[in-house]
Batch of 3 targets.
Target 1
Amino acid sequence: MILAGRRINDGMGAHVVDRITRLMMKRGFPVVGSRVLVMGSTFKENCPDLRNSRVVDVIRGLREYNATADVCDPCVDPLEAHEEYDESFRDEMPGPGIYIGIVLAVSHREFEELGASRIRAFGKPNAVLFDVKGMLERDDSDGRL
């Protein structure tokens, strides 16, 4: 039972990548060369600890599709996160209209305070918003676990 649970957890990053890339393609967005915002990178919300975080699997999975994953996490030291993820990392919120995919990976307080409409504003028109943690209302995201 424990091993089965571990296999499910270990495959969750690939599952999230599969779901968001399918949603992007259904909307006519190319995955190759796309920019995706990954919101949150820590093991749990409102905590700076990157150890044991599975968000890195999502970032690496997007990279396998030749997409750029910009990681935004206000709880983490940017240098530590850059060393861990080797991707573009931001400790402040991005500007509007940049991304074609947004993955809400960790439900930090700062992200909850933004709400769905302000999170969607980071994306281009019709961008895909995927809520991993179920932080938003079901109708406010395009996909969720």
Target 2
Amino acid sequence: MNFPEVKRKSRKAPYHKPDAVKELERLAMDEARRKYPNHPAGVLAPRIFRDDSANGLTQCIVKYITLQGGFASRINSTGIYNKKLHKYIPGTQKKGIADVMATFKGLSLHIEVKHGSDRLSDSQKKIQDEVTQSGGLYYVARDFTSFKQWFDNLIPATKWIKNT
């Protein structure tokens, strides 16, 4: 009896959570315990993060900056889908704007998230030049560990900046 050949999906290597992501989870859990001090420890849902996708990495970055006392927001640049026209209508932001915009101790941070083999487009390179020439900081994040190292190195450099 001949059986049809079954195509199997290729499996990715299992995800091994980096220490930096584990530390982020601990910090987020500590924040939740402070925010909800009357809840028993076992009641709070665990804070789970991953950096093995563009969305996951973006969430890690935004959360880490806010946990460190900064402001961070993900920028959606896909536009809005118009059902009647069956197409996306472009947004009003500049083409090539970074995925995350943040402020930390007076510094303007622009973080572009690139996962896998993604590369900066020409419009993203132009924005990078504009940001850095105007005194802002631009970072291309490929994983959370290297982003965290870059960001943590900003902390000693910002001690001279006065918060008003």
Target 3
Amino acid sequence: MTEALPPRLVAWNLELQAAHQRLRAALDVARATGDTAAGAADPETAARDLLLFCHGFCVALTGHHVGEDARLFPELAERHPQLRPTIAKLEQDHAMIGYLLGALDAAVTSGATPAVLAQHLEGVAAIMESHFGYEERQLLPLLADLELDADPAAVLGPL
């Protein structure tokens, strides 16, 4: 685990890719739970499971974006001023994803049908994948050389 390594040895590009992979996996679990809920014999248990997995995914993705906005993006903007428009777009994506996660959470807590929840998850997934792809294309080369004295969990979320 990277927490034990001195910060100068953290490969931030690999940390970002790993965080994105964990978030993709969490989304896959939420989707699978939704699929199970759609055909469940016990709708109450299925609804609780879906609430748990969707909520966990929402919290993880939000934590990731909060960490980037608070720690990673200011550092990159200071070191690479030419990235400020890119960072502004990434922050705009974070706001849009936050809005979609809020709508997903409202749908889950209001007892929406599995089909409605699946639509919400697919919307989040589409924006999330587009965002992750853009972020990786724009930032991974710079993150490969970044020396940042910080805990990866604080920068990229406690995933």
